[in-house]
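Subject: two folds for Thursday's group meeting

Dear M.,

Sorry for the delay on this. The cluster queue was jammed most of the week, so I only got both jobs back this morning. I'm pasting them in the order they finished. Each block is the input sequence followed by the predicted structure tokens. Could you check whether the formatting survives your parser before we put anything on slides? The first protein is the one we discussed after the seminar.
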Amino acid sequence: MPSPPVKTRARLSEVRYEIRGELARRARELEAQGRRLIKLNIGNPGAFGFRAPEHLQRAIADRIADTDPYTHQQGLPAAREAIAAFHKRRGTPNASPERVFVGNGVSELIDLSLRALLDPGDEVLLPSPDYPLWSAATILNDGRPVYYRCRPENGFLPDPDEIESLVSGRTRAIVLINPNNPTGAAYPRALLERIVAIAARHKLLLMCDEIYDSILYDGAGFEPVAPLAGDLPCLSFGGLSKVHRACGWRVGWAVLSGDPVASGDFHHAMDLLGALRLCANVPGQFAIEAALQGEDTIGALCAPGGRLYEARRAVIESVAASRHLALVAPAGALYAFPAVTGAAAAGFDDHRFALELLETEDVLVVPGSSFNVPYRNHFRVTLLPQPDDLREVFRRIERLLDRYAGAADARAAVA
């Protein structure tokens, strides 16, 4: 008799991660058949020819002989000192090495922090659209995501009044992703101050995903939340993967700021969970001090003439020339989140569109609904390819949307 199937956790059925999901699997099948694809689904700089800065590479190479043992569960002392010093320069209150946690990327620390925070049924206020790892980690740690809307017509900025209306007796935290993935929105100081005030009134933990903090365009500013939060407990996430183009090194950190007494139990819980996984990747931690104290290597890429800036320009200009697309220009991060409009949007389904674009035009994008939004007329692309490649991508997108619009017009004529 065949063995019975291995039962999996029921809550996994609630988790979505299309960035590396069904469409990415189909892309691998097509590549195995010899198809050459342009893959815009993952913000992975190394896959597009970017390299981590040389001084970070040297920092690891020079200390490779010291990387064999486990280190402290919160990270190498020198790395934590460098992170704390960086946050002190920003004005983060009570930033100290003892309140820094180094992890295998920000992803691991998001999971650990929610595991430390949530009891079954507790709620976390998340942006919609969100980076879907936040929703998945909330669900898999027995919490409930509650979404506050970041509407396209508001530049993808949230409404603080709506955030406060969603607070319940089970709410434990407000998550902010700034600059935002997938929209590229950068949150102004006045907006952040209002959200901090909500967290203070309701005694909520602020969880601030700031991994794209230095990736900004056209004079957009970045406002760290921790200095605004003062004594309010705040967990700020950063790392080497995006600003320093070192995704594969899996180096992220979280800094717990605010009143140490108020966050003492949470600190101990994070420390315990970190100890249970022993420690984070050690070699990459030797690059943290060099990254935070060394030269700026991202600014030129985001300035006019820089590769990221020109890639963003290619997307903005391609959308402006399109008969079927609209875009809130990203102010930061590595993505754009265009909307399909007009006749092409009639009966539009973002997942079907992404699959047809892959099958017929050899382009892989992420459906917008993967980011936990109620509408289905958006998709996400990364800004990492060469500008000319992005212009070609949007020519192919236009071809498919022309077909959609033509079919809609034909249906209307028959009706």
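Second protein, same layout:
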Amino acid sequence: MTTFHEFKIRPSSLKVLDGMDIITPTDIQANSIPPLLEGRDVIGQAHTGSGKTLAFGLPLIESIVPENKWLQALVLVPTRELAIQVHDVIEMLAKATKIKSTVIYGGRAYGPQRDAIYGGAQIVVGTPGRVLDHLNQGTMRVDGVTYMVLDEADQMLDRGFAPDVERILAQTNKARQTALFSATTPEWVMKVMDKHLRDAVVVRSIDDDVEYEPDIEHVVYECFSDDKMKVLLKLLDEPSEEGGTTLVFGRTKHGVRNLGVKLERMGYQVDVLQGNLSQGQRERVLSKFRAGKTPILLATNVAARGLDVLHITRVINYELPETAELFTHRVGRTGRMGRSGQAITIIGPADFPKWKEIERGLGKTMPRLSPDGVEIKQMAPKPQSRMGSGGFGTRRRRPAFAGRR
């Protein structure tokens, strides 16, 4: 399969994909879409950023009968941010059709969600807890659902949603088509497959058969005293080689908020994403960032998972995460869907012990530069473990931002 035009999908969907400059399907898309279009159940396993939303989204749109004004497709996801993100893709694919969709999750009023369902939503994207609430209150029915998706099923297990998911599945039509997508396949996922899927096609991305390394260039700036802020400003003054937007990670809500105030006073166009924001504020910030209207987003670890924005070409760790796993999730926000990216970490003297611990957990040492961009020679520690697909690309380019162009 070389292009999406070889799939039997709506011309409107092809037009949307062409407009997004998405021509060639990823491995998980090429292998999942044909059986889904045939009406088969599918279990897809692929790493984050491999294009899973399109893999189930395109067949989902094809499954909808526009003339039928009841709920026909349900997509369950673990977080409200991912729900919004997945719904944005579904809505974009359906924009040239008469298909109606809506998104439901906690933290928002029931009324507008109920009205959207009553208004003829044929597709619902939602979190398990809020979907179950609507079912229990009688404001939503799923017995007419013919296409069901469990996205990021392994994360839903981690977050304790398994009982809610089971209750929702029990109320759906047993003759439905089911697609289950996950980065890993823990025991719970296999139990769901055995109980709720029929003769499922298991699709594994070829990239998962080998150690997957997204095209991400890593570099660490080793700083002293107040040099961390100076290095950050230098990086922000020199746009990424690849263009696109920048995601800067801090550790605490208070620290990220204060950093945002400082940068705004210096004239930088930034937004801040942290846990104390109301849901409406978070949605406005994310909407602007996804639209490319915000060149720099400052965030806590709230953005380390579930933020799938293709134009993020640079992640800057201004403050270190607590674990190697969180580092992996942070830097995984760039270099998505085959694109290249840069991951820059700025460390001061107090950060050295924690950074050594993170490198040990990753089983990888990163190139180090002085604040002026001069390479620092170092001894590589013995690898001890590997924290998944953290994106340690093997490209050899000049050190990122080693000097002004």
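Two things I noticed about the second structure. The chain has 14 helices and 15 strands. The radius of gyration is 22 Å.

Cheers,
T.
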